[in-house]
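Fold this sequence, please.
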Amino acid sequence: MSEKYDVIVIGGGPGGYVAAIRAAQLGYKTACIEKRINKQGDPALGGTCLNVGCIPSKALLDSSWKYHEAEEAFSDHGIGVGKLNLDLDTMLQRKDKIVLQLTGGIAQLFKANKVDWLQGTGQLKANKQVAFKPLEGDEQTLEAENVVLAAGSVPIDIPVAEVDQQIIVDSTGALEFTSVPKKLGVIGAGVIGLELGSVWARLGSQVTVLEAVDTFLPAVDQQIAKEAMKQFTKQGLDIHLGARVTGSKKNKNSVRVTYTDGDGEHEETFDRLIVAVGRRPYTEGLLSQDAGVTLDERNFIYVDNQCRTDVPGVYAIGDLVRGPALAHKAIEEGVMVAEVIAGEHTQVNYDAVPGVIYTHPEVAWVGKTEEEVKESGEPYKTGVVPFAANGRALAAGESAGMVKFVVDEKSDRVLGMHVLGPQASELVQQGVISLEFGASIEDLQLMVFGHPSLSETVHEAALATDYKAIHVAQRRRKK
């Protein structure tokens, strides 16, 4: 006789483990199926994000930035450190320790909330049955009132640069270099490519980024994107736009890459090559032919606004479905689905999901870009203030970048907030709150911001939309 659950979640990443915990909190008998084995050889929760994505990359981004500061900026503060020594092995061990602490914490939360962690693979069959194949032992058939599909995504492979995790690596392999490559190539100038390129550039690599698209960060407000390009170039990232990779040939310790751009065909040799051209939904083996779940032409699972699939009682969340492939979006969908199962009317506000690139300076945004609003034809106004006018930023030596608001001129509502600069990932939350509560820009103008703080630039940018900024000179825009 097969075991029955109220809720079975397939996938233990940010969306899946959160959905399982919330369902258990709501009183449902819940199981979460996860097949991952970590680099230590043990079963692990947390998915790509905690194991080989967001968390380890941020650990290396922070470590590499500290190294860069010691090398380049400490002397500005009157601090002499002598000859620097890079112990890459210790840096990687620190990263691994953080990952183990967080993934182990999820296992403890499962115990505390009485979620059954089923270690192995799961496949949805007809009538909400789940074929569970344990890491060890025979396949079992489980039954569920509700099934949540949360299998996540995997890096996109490209035939012109096949990953071997030695010379040519994906985002996972790029976290495990045992020495700093002298020359590093990165295919893709998106979030992952820029973050990983930044890590190794700070530690001493000569980094070349090849991006097939002609526009840098096309999804980002272009005023912010252009300034970000300047900053990253100044830091040593050699970014080529409109550069389409046509082939690669590996040698024992290097790879020769050919690419074309507006100037013709080029060839470069790198010690290591990172392929970071995006991610795709991981649906292999997830659905039997009679499962009844619909996929679109790009292999995303079709869902409605509350993540219901075409099969009643079956939901899909996170990178498997439409919208940005972001851990925090998956987390909120996991909570929403558990609460929808419980009969609540929770809804994710997809118009207020922030995006962040954890470079230095950070890039963060929420809502509409100026380009999007301009295209709509609706009247709008903007306010832009640089961090160079902010006392706290100058005191910290973090004066690059700016805060920008895009505002509906008729209603005065905040439509978008865009930040390039220190702590952008934190500051952008003020824009998220503004959008969530339907704030007017006047609401932000009338608030009191602590002095000195980075957030004062948010205040000044809000004031700047109506030519009221105090600490920057403004010229009125001609109508």
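The mean pLDDT is 97. The CA atoms of residues 214 and 242 lie 4 Å apart.
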